Amino acid sequence: MPQPSDLLTRLAVSTVIFALRPDHSGRSVLWTPLVRRTREPQRGYWALPGGWLPPNEELEVAAARTLRATTGLAPKYLEQLYTFGQVDRSPGARVVSVVYWALVQSDEAARASAGPNVRWVPADTLPALAFDHNRIIEYALWRLRNKVEYAEIAHAFLGETFTLAELREVYEAVLQRSLDPANFRRQMIASGRLRETGERLAGAPHRPPRLYRYDTSAVTAESREPFMRERPAS
Amino acid sequence: MPQPSDLLTRLAVSTVIFALRPDHSGRSVLWTPLVRRTREPQRGYWALPGGWLPPNEELEVAAARTLRATTGLAPKYLEQLYTFGQVDRSPGARVVSVVYWALVQSDEAARASAGPNVRWVPADTLPALAFDHNRIIEYALWRLRNKVEYAEIAHAFLGETFTLAELREVYEAVLQRSLDPANFRRQMIASGRLRETGERLAGAPHRPPRLYRYDTSAVTAESREPFMRERPAS
DNA sequence: TCAAAAGTGTTGGGGATACACCCATGG
DNA sequence: CCATGGGTGTATCCCCAACACTTTTGA
């Protein structure tokens, strides 16, 4: 069944990774890690983390593995984004890339490993990247911003427990607009997926906010998308 | 850069094709064409139309080509669905399938080519198919039913011009529930994407309905998704 | 003139937005 | 006691579902 000509097309897996970090002015914005290419083609350019698909490894596992390899982190959210296969997207060979996108906990990302060949950059102001990776990240950003509005994924940027102000800051950073705290609170509570921990966060010079936890069991079968696991592979 | 072990994974493109056809009771329901496998593995089973990806062919073009090969039709809507790559989804070899989904005009589909190895079946009551193709079609159905509710793709089942009753019948068939004609009319008009042709459809024993046309130019840049062309490749 | 579908009008409820206002804490 | 963010109350708007009602045709 295999034809000789097929040997020319290679299959790769790449991952767009998002975390929230403060920018120069202190506001939270989206950052993404890139790796420097040490080989041709496009040597020296920054590119998405990824690699060839090992024949015995699941696609999602390969995505989580490259994520861990470049950041030292485990994804809190991981989903297939799109498969890019333009004939001319890589010079010299036909490369089809199955691309995933991931969200990682922001405080973990702050102490994520970096090195001369790994660099975090603001996702909205990218330099010129290798191949079609600019387009890919733009698409991932579009998907993230869309999905945040109808799916409950924002908590993936946060730890186990969080305040509504922290959660709101995630939404504001992703959507790039400020939200009314009062209405935001009601929307989140109305979703039925936040559980009070009973604890509060003290220390700030004002009324201490309640701490919440995201309740995975409250996701109904109707609203769940196919192929969406709670704990992504790692 | 290629490693010898990669030669074991094969890349295929398959397409889930939808058209509306009357079922035994005369109501419009979704149908999809399947092809009988004439080789191992899974010989004799019905499967999605598809084939290996030729190294010099774009993914979307390959999808449109297999669509044409099995139905003789050109897609009115074509979009990438998902890439399936489970290690064990095909016995004997690692096969990664980039799957597309397509909508074809229903009156064309009625006279679509069929043969001993091509068969149209109701998409909601499938027999046991080859590989993981049942799961794939279920996912495509889920996507179609979701997308019909927020994107304007229903007209892809119809011809150049159509009445609001015909368009409503599409929605009702896809969503499997009846819709209020009065409210449906207002929603569609409010979308701003229907243009009156000025003509009416006569012949029935009642008030002749207006004929409309879908206005592709009315799609704003903000609402458009990345990678979505108006005329799919053929 | 009648049946049936096309098309219009009207009403009420639910959710989102805007914003006024009170609460609780550290300094 | 004051500044600050946490948290509640409430009026308004808009979209949508429900449904009564009028219009227009072929038979």
Automatic annotation (TrEMBL), chains A, B:
PROSITE patterns: NUDIX. Residues 8-145 form the Nudix hydrolase domain. InterPro entries: NUDIX_hydrolase-like_dom_sf, NUDIX_hydrolase_dom, WH-like_DNA-bd_sf, WH_DNA-bd_sf, WHD_NrtR. Pfam families: NUDIX (PF00293), WHD_NrtR (PF21906). This is ADP-ribose pyrophosphatase. The lineage of its organism: Bacteria, Bacillati, Actinomycetota, Actinomycetes, Micrococcales.
